[in-house]
Design goal:
alpha/beta; 4 helices; globular; about 130 residues; Glutaredoxin
Length: about 130
């Protein structure tokens, strides 16, 4: 199993954020194109609505935008380098990763095949949460 290396993000106001995988049962990373991508703005809003359900399973949601601004009406963080997204998502550089508390990528979807439904992501998070922690 491949582990996701730590990453450094910036909040919309420039604050540096370094997510810690061990702080949650699972972390859902949604890598989005820049704010000019209509499909990614829609995906952001869709996954933002899932945030409370994920929290019920002790899962964290990170919406990660490429570029210099988080689009108006959306939330999320900015990624300084797109090397990580290219490594995991290939040419699309948009998609979803679900990572467990050890940094192991449990599931990935590339936007080339289409973003997963929130229900599909929640199912993976539940499976991780119900596994033995070892």
């Amino acid at each position: 199993m491949k582990r996701l290396e730590n990453l450094t993000l910036r909040s919309a106001n420039g604050e540096v954020v370094e997510p810690k995988w061990q702080d949650h049962v699972a972390t859902v990373l949604v890598f989005l194109h820049d704010g000019h991508c209509f499909a990614c703005r829609k995906t952001c809003r869709t996954f933002s609505e899932l945030k409370e359900q994920l929290a019920e399973w002790d899962a964290n949601l990170l919406l990660i935008w490429r570029g210099e601004i988080v689009p108006e009406g959306c939330e999320g963080f900015l990624e300084g380098s797109s090397n990580l997204r290219r490594k995991w998502l290939g040419e699309s550089s948009a998609g979803v990763l679900v990572v467990d508390r050890f940094g192991v990528v449990a599931k990935k979807w590339s936007a080339i095949e289409g973003f997963p439904s929130p229900e599909d992501v929640l199912t993976v998070v539940k499976d991780i949460a119900l596994q033995c922690p070892e």
